[in-house]
Write a structure and sequence with these properties.
Length: about 375
């Protein structure tokens, strides 16, 4: 028989419940964890709803661009099944995040290709070309009808470039053509002008073709673009994309807004019969002007009093007479002499000076003349 001591461990129910958190505490903690998870989910849902408070529409029903869109995690707050999407891609400053670039990178717009049910797509405030992703989204959205693209800056054509490209405004008028010109002013299908031509956005036929190949690797694509209404702002446009990629049986409207340039734009003959082309009718819209810094003291503020009407003048004069009569001790300055307020006198008497030189009778009223102090 071994003489080694024996140890017995005894725990009461209170200690067991305290150690393993049995009973009521377990249920309470489970409920608290469940409620906290629900609160976090509810807060995330509210955050997703409140993130884009500017996701509204104009009076005519068209969608307003979401100005607070910043890419990145903002995409998860947009339903990919929606039929209308309007985004503003302009980054005004990087004060919110000093490490953020000044221009939205291309890959920030990559989730746009996940929207397959769009009927209207509007992108504004673009500071660089995103045509590869935009046209890929258009190829994958078979029901897309309205495509609205706006650049933040207008294109700049070099003075040394030999081409004569008019601005699409005023007395400009669209032309028709039988075949495409076959010219290309883009930069390797990136939607930008060649540097020898200038700087700006170019409606790039190669960018549309490359986007179709990329979209075909993901899903089914039609033979021609499904766009019905095309709106462009700040684009350099020629005729080749309309001959190659736009469907003559669907395209019905082309709207050129401000700062578009004609680089040989022409509609195919079969399109010209039913496609409506619109452009700004003003010859000279507001041109930018030079400004200079103003030094302190160069600008002066002039406070101009309001001119009273004739009726108001009579009321003001009557009120002044009543106020003057109520203050007989206060004088009124007129020329070199200072006279007191008038006292009633028989009307109809001519103006005269009294013998003592102290009173003046003017218009039936007496005025007390005060001598000028020469001390």
């Amino acid at each position: 028989m071994s003489d080694s001591p024996r140890f017995s461990l005894r725990f009461n129910s209170a200690e067991i419940s305290r150690v393993f958190d049995f009973g009521r505490n377990t249920r309470t903690r489970t409920v608290s964890i469940g409620s906290s998870s629900y609160n976090l989910l509810q807060a995330e849902t509210n955050e997703s709803r409140e993130l884009f408070r500017d996701d509204t529409r104009y009076a005519d029903g068209s969608a307003k661009p979401i100005m607070s869109f910043r890419g990145g995690t903002s995409w998860r707050h947009l339903d990919t099944e929606r039929e209308s999407l309007s985004l503003d891609l302009f980054w005004s400053s990087h004060k919110e995040n000093p490490f953020r670039p000044d221009i939205m990178p291309m890959m920030e717009l990559a989730p746009l290709c996940n929207f397959r049910n769009l009927r209207s797509l509007k992108l504004t405030g673009m500071l660089q070309s995103y045509q590869l992703l935009i046209w890929q989204t258009v190829w994958l959205s078979h029901g897309l009808e309205e495509l609205h693209l706006e650049m933040a800056l207008e294109p700049c054509i070099r003075h040394t470039f030999c081409g004569s490209w008019p601005k699409i405004r005023g007395k400009w008028f669209p032309r028709t053509a039988v075949t495409a010109r076959g010219l290309y002013y883009g930069k390797n299908g990136r939607g930008e002008l060649q540097r020898r031509v200038g700087f700006g956005e170019y409606l790039d036929k190669h960018a549309i073709g490359n986007a179709k190949e990329a979209a075909a690797a993901v899903g089914a694509t039609p033979d021609k673009l499904p766009v019905v209404k095309l709106t462009l702002m700040g684009f350099v446009v020629d005729s080749d994309p309309f001959f190659l990629w736009f469907n003559p049986h669907r395209l019905r409207s082309i709207e050129f807004k401000d700062h578009c340039v004609d680089a040989g734009f022409a509609l195919p003959v079969q399109m010209s019969e039913h496609v409506v082309v619109s452009w700004p009718r003003q010859d000279n819209p507001g041109e930018p002007m030079w400004a200079r810094r103003v030094t302190p003291g160069e600008i002066q503020l002039i406070d101009r009093k309001r001119t009273a009407n004739k009726g108001d003048k009579g009321k003001e004069k009557a009120g002044a007479d009543e106020q003057a009569a109520s203050k007989p001790g206060q004088g009124k300055r007129s020329g070199k002499a200072t006279v007191s307020q008038p006292e009633d006198a028989p009307s109809g008497q001519p103006a005269r000076r009294s013998g003592g030189g102290g009173l003046l009778h003017i218009g039936g009223r007496r005025f007390l003349r005060k001598k000028k102090n020469t001390d």
